[in-house]
Amino acid sequence: MIRVALVDDQAVVRAGFRVLLEDAGDLEVVGEASSGPEAVAMVRRTRPDVVCMDVRMPGGDGLAATRQIVAERDGDLPAVLVVTTFDLDDYVFGALEAGASGFVLKDTDPADLAEAIRRLARGEGMVDQTVTRRVIAEFARRRPAPDPSEADGLLTPRERDIVRLLAEGMSNAEIAAALFVEPSTVKSHLGRAMTKLGTRDRLQTVVWAYRTGVAVPR
Fold first, then answer.
1. pTM: predicted TM-score of the whole model, two decimal places
2. Angle 50-31-74 (CA atoms, 0-180°, nearest 5)?
3. Alpha-carbon span 81 to 121, nearest angstrom
4. For residues 10 and 27, what is the distance between their CA atoms, to the nearest angstrom?
């Protein structure tokens, strides 16, 4: 069972999400909060696997709460999925910079929201497909000039190649075909690379690749 926390200033939204998610069968809502500060305290208390976080809340914004939750998390818990009505670039960039593992819009299909939560629980990142390409390209463009030394020596040449191809949007199977190795080998190398980088999921690994210049936008 995947433990989920809901953060939104509107009680009706939280109630709707609770019904939708618990109907999925493998998701359990273990806590709710209506502001950023409440969210931080609730996460400390309930230890969810995934936090569904609103961005704009009058009692404290979700990006600040995300930043604090990510800074305090122990091991793999929790991942933060930003769920918002706003698809403006700045919100997406802010979520990525704060350490969120995913971003979806509130009008997404309930099944897609549940699947996004499952992906984050498995350690995979998720950005709503309506904004993915624009976000990655613009996020990379906005980054300051990378310091090559930040990437030097952290990864083996093979790990670096895999991270670069991941940032180009390839799946494990596609990376394996490009490098003439087995998908299991890609998964193993990627896991070791993420451990070295301290990135919890694929999305934050992609962010690292663009920020350091290991990957460049096309």
1. 0.75
2. 45
3. 10
4. 21
